[in-house]
Amino acid sequence: MGNKIFYGIIGLIVVAFIIIAVVIGGNEKSAEDYAYYPYTDKEPEELSGPTIDKLEDEDYQSNKTPAEVEEIVNSGEGEFVYFWSPTCQHCQAATPMLTDALDSIDGEVTQLNVLEYDQAWETYNISATPTLVYYENGEEVERLEGNPGSVDGFEEFMTAAAGE
Protein backbone atom coordinates (compact mmCIF):
# COMPACT_ATOMS: atom_id res chain seq x y z
CA MET A 1 0.00 0.00 0.00
CA GLY A 2 2.86 2.40 0.88
CA ASN A 3 4.53 1.89 -2.51
CA LYS A 4 1.33 2.80 -4.37
CA ILE A 5 1.04 6.09 -2.48
CA PHE A 6 4.73 6.85 -3.06
CA TYR A 7 4.49 6.18 -6.81
CA GLY A 8 1.23 8.15 -6.98
CA ILE A 9 2.90 11.20 -5.42
CA ILE A 10 5.90 10.87 -7.76
CA GLY A 11 3.49 10.62 -10.72
CA LEU A 12 1.66 13.79 -9.64
CA ILE A 13 4.93 15.67 -9.31
CA VAL A 14 6.03 14.62 -12.80
CA VAL A 15 2.67 15.66 -14.28
CA ALA A 16 2.90 19.02 -12.49
CA PHE A 17 6.38 19.67 -13.94
CA ILE A 18 5.16 18.80 -17.43
CA ILE A 19 2.22 21.20 -17.12
CA ILE A 20 4.50 23.99 -15.86
CA ALA A 21 6.94 23.42 -18.74
CA VAL A 22 4.13 23.56 -21.30
CA VAL A 23 2.69 26.76 -19.81
CA ILE A 24 6.07 28.51 -19.62
CA GLY A 25 7.11 27.36 -23.09
CA GLY A 26 3.80 28.42 -24.58
CA ASN A 27 4.26 32.05 -23.49
CA GLU A 28 6.98 32.88 -26.03
CA LYS A 29 5.82 35.51 -28.49
CA SER A 30 6.66 35.70 -32.13
CA ALA A 31 7.18 38.90 -34.11
CA GLU A 32 3.60 38.61 -35.41
CA ASP A 33 2.25 38.87 -31.86
CA TYR A 34 3.29 42.52 -31.64
CA ALA A 35 1.40 45.37 -33.32
CA TYR A 36 4.75 46.99 -34.11
CA TYR A 37 7.90 44.92 -34.50
CA PRO A 38 10.82 46.78 -36.14
CA TYR A 39 13.60 44.28 -35.38
CA THR A 40 13.17 42.39 -38.63
CA ASP A 41 16.62 40.85 -38.37
CA LYS A 42 16.01 39.41 -34.88
CA GLU A 43 13.49 37.12 -33.25
CA PRO A 44 11.75 38.31 -30.05
CA GLU A 45 13.68 35.84 -27.89
CA GLU A 46 16.92 37.47 -29.09
CA LEU A 47 15.89 40.88 -27.72
CA SER A 48 16.72 42.12 -24.25
CA GLY A 49 13.91 42.49 -21.70
CA PRO A 50 14.03 46.32 -21.68
CA THR A 51 13.63 46.38 -25.47
CA ILE A 52 10.66 44.03 -25.31
CA ASP A 53 9.09 46.33 -22.70
CA LYS A 54 9.25 49.25 -25.20
CA LEU A 55 7.67 47.41 -28.16
CA GLU A 56 4.19 48.64 -27.29
CA ASP A 57 5.33 52.17 -26.33
CA GLU A 58 4.14 54.70 -28.93
CA ASP A 59 7.24 56.86 -28.39
CA TYR A 60 9.41 54.10 -29.86
CA GLN A 61 7.57 53.36 -33.09
CA SER A 62 10.22 54.58 -35.56
CA ASN A 63 12.92 52.00 -34.90
CA LYS A 64 14.98 50.65 -37.75
CA THR A 65 17.71 48.07 -38.18
CA PRO A 66 21.30 49.26 -38.78
CA ALA A 67 21.00 48.39 -42.47
CA GLU A 68 17.84 50.50 -42.76
CA VAL A 69 19.46 53.40 -40.91
CA GLU A 70 22.48 53.27 -43.22
CA GLU A 71 20.20 53.32 -46.25
CA ILE A 72 18.24 56.29 -44.85
CA VAL A 73 21.40 58.23 -43.94
CA ASN A 74 22.87 57.65 -47.42
CA SER A 75 19.63 58.41 -49.28
CA GLY A 76 20.58 62.03 -49.89
CA GLU A 77 17.53 63.27 -48.02
CA GLY A 78 17.77 65.23 -44.80
CA GLU A 79 16.99 62.88 -41.91
CA PHE A 80 17.17 62.88 -38.12
CA VAL A 81 18.41 59.69 -36.45
CA TYR A 82 17.78 59.20 -32.75
CA PHE A 83 20.20 56.87 -30.99
CA TRP A 84 18.68 55.58 -27.75
CA SER A 85 18.72 52.72 -25.27
CA PRO A 86 15.78 51.28 -23.31
CA THR A 87 18.03 51.10 -20.23
CA CYS A 88 18.94 54.80 -20.40
CA GLN A 89 17.00 56.91 -17.91
CA HIS A 90 17.85 60.07 -19.87
CA CYS A 91 16.31 58.50 -22.99
CA GLN A 92 13.17 57.59 -21.05
CA ALA A 93 12.83 61.25 -20.02
CA ALA A 94 13.79 62.75 -23.39
CA THR A 95 11.92 60.54 -25.86
CA PRO A 96 8.40 61.76 -24.98
CA MET A 97 9.64 65.35 -25.39
CA LEU A 98 11.16 64.46 -28.77
CA THR A 99 7.87 62.88 -29.85
CA ASP A 100 5.97 66.02 -28.84
CA ALA A 101 8.48 68.22 -30.67
CA LEU A 102 8.14 66.11 -33.81
CA ASP A 103 4.36 66.43 -33.63
CA SER A 104 4.69 70.19 -33.16
CA ILE A 105 6.96 70.77 -36.17
CA ASP A 106 5.44 67.94 -38.24
CA GLY A 107 8.81 66.21 -38.35
CA GLU A 108 10.04 62.64 -38.57
CA VAL A 109 12.87 60.74 -36.95
CA THR A 110 14.47 57.36 -37.42
CA GLN A 111 15.32 55.56 -34.18
CA LEU A 112 18.17 53.12 -33.58
CA ASN A 113 18.27 51.10 -30.37
CA VAL A 114 21.95 50.93 -29.40
CA LEU A 115 21.29 48.27 -26.76
CA GLU A 116 20.27 45.81 -29.48
CA TYR A 117 22.69 47.14 -32.09
CA ASP A 118 25.79 47.99 -30.11
CA GLN A 119 27.95 48.40 -33.21
CA ALA A 120 26.19 51.77 -33.69
CA TRP A 121 28.28 53.25 -30.88
CA GLU A 122 31.38 52.97 -33.04
CA THR A 123 29.80 53.29 -36.48
CA TYR A 124 28.13 56.61 -35.68
CA ASN A 125 30.59 57.84 -33.00
CA ILE A 126 27.95 57.81 -30.27
CA SER A 127 29.39 58.68 -26.87
CA ALA A 128 26.14 58.95 -24.89
CA THR A 129 22.43 58.37 -25.19
CA PRO A 130 20.20 59.95 -26.14
CA THR A 131 21.87 61.41 -29.22
CA LEU A 132 19.95 63.05 -32.06
CA VAL A 133 21.88 63.52 -35.30
CA TYR A 134 20.81 65.29 -38.48
CA TYR A 135 22.22 63.81 -41.69
CA GLU A 136 22.05 65.25 -45.17
CA ASN A 137 23.56 63.77 -48.33
CA GLY A 138 25.09 60.97 -46.25
CA GLU A 139 27.00 63.37 -44.01
CA GLU A 140 26.42 64.42 -40.41
CA VAL A 141 25.31 68.06 -40.26
CA GLU A 142 24.50 68.59 -36.58
CA ARG A 143 24.40 66.58 -33.35
CA LEU A 144 22.57 66.97 -30.02
CA GLU A 145 23.88 64.76 -27.23
CA GLY A 146 21.86 64.29 -24.07
CA ASN A 147 18.45 65.51 -23.04
CA PRO A 148 17.81 69.18 -23.93
CA GLY A 149 15.28 69.26 -21.10
CA SER A 150 12.24 70.46 -22.99
CA VAL A 151 10.11 70.10 -26.09
CA ASP A 152 11.28 73.58 -27.12
CA GLY A 153 14.91 72.45 -26.84
CA PHE A 154 14.29 69.65 -29.34
CA GLU A 155 12.27 71.95 -31.63
CA GLU A 156 15.00 74.59 -31.67
CA PHE A 157 17.69 72.02 -32.46
CA MET A 158 15.70 70.36 -35.24
CA THR A 159 14.64 73.56 -36.98
CA ALA A 160 18.19 74.98 -36.79
CA ALA A 161 19.84 71.73 -37.95
CA ALA A 162 17.47 71.27 -40.88
CA GLY A 163 17.76 74.96 -41.81
CA GLU A 164 14.05 75.61 -41.52
From TrEMBL:
Transmembrane annotation, as ranges: 6-24
GO molecular function, one term: protein-disulfide reductase activity
Metal-binding is among the record's keywords: no
Record CDD domains: TRX_family (cd02947)
GO BP annotations listed: cell redox homeostasis
UniProt keyword annotations, A-Z: Disulfide bond, Isomerase, Membrane, Redox-active center, Transmembrane, Transmembrane helix
Family matches, as Pfam families: DUF6568 (PF20207)
Gene3D superfamilies linked to this entry: Glutaredoxin
Domain Thioredoxin: 43-163
Protein name: Thioredoxin
A Gene Ontology term for the protein's cellular component: cytosol
Organism the protein comes from: Jeotgalicoccus aerolatus
Similarity field: Belongs to the thioredoxin family.
InterPro entries: PedC-like, Thioredoxin-like_sf, Thioredoxin_domain
